Amino acid sequence: MDDPVSGLKKGDQTEENPIELFDDWLSQAEKSEVNDPSAMSLASVDSDGMPNVRMVLMRRYDERGFCFFTNFESQKGEELLANPKASGMFHWKSLRKQVRIRGEVEVVSDEEADEYFFSRPRGSQIASTASQQSRPLGCRDQMLEEVAELSAKFGTGDIPRPEHWSGFRIKPLSIEFWSDGKFRLHDRIRFDRDSVEDAWETVRLYP
């Protein structure tokens, strides 16, 4: 029987491939969410074992995993380099749906980082170069002055991607799809695998 809530179709590849199901849900969200349908909460763990969560923008995804870009000298950058595991969640209020992912983390290639960096608006490139992300800032004017100095320095020339700026890919070992149901009888379907080389296994969960 087809599942009208999750979009899973018996015998269809989406029943076995969570990336295709995610693609379908994200396409729906892009039509209904007012702001940033690719926004994802990202959880990492610090050196004391304490969790940290924040919002990031997931910029690309494929069968390998979900990518976002950041300053490696930021809190999340340092945490993920030290402990390359993470969890992320997409919540689309307009659809009453959410997707949770958990898995291993890897640094994207220089080519991927360059491609995304140079696709960004010029102002965002300069901001990434100027920002000492997560570190103390005396006052906002100090940062704005640094941005102005960099803008004058580079003029209309190319802005090189900073060495400390790149991206991470979450290679999921678990992807859970959640749909709101009446009387809190929500629909939960989870795809699991022991390693990124393994095939996905599917299990339905009580709400």
Structure report:
The chain is of the alpha+beta class and 207 residues long. The chain has 2 domains: 13-118 and 163-205, Pnp Oxidase, Chain A, CATH 2.30.110; 119-160, no CATH class. It is built from 5 helices and 9 strands, in the order αββββαββαααβββ. It has helices at residues 18-32, 75-82, 110-117, 122-130, 140-154; strands at residues 39-45, 51-57, 60-62, 65-71, 85-92, 97-107, 165-179, 187-192, 201-205. Strands 1, 2, 3, 4, 5, 6, 7, 8 and 9 form a 9-stranded antiparallel β-sheet that branches. Helix 4 crosses helix 5 (140-154). The longest helix is centred in the N-terminal third of the chain and has 15 residues, at 18-32. The chain is elongated, with a radius of gyration of 19 Å. The two termini are 20 Å apart.
List its traits.
elongated; 33% strand; 207 residues; 5 helices; 2 domains
Task: Provide a compact summary of the structure.
The protein is an alpha+beta fold. The chain folds into two domains: 13-118 and 163-205, Pnp Oxidase, Chain A; 119-160, no CATH class.
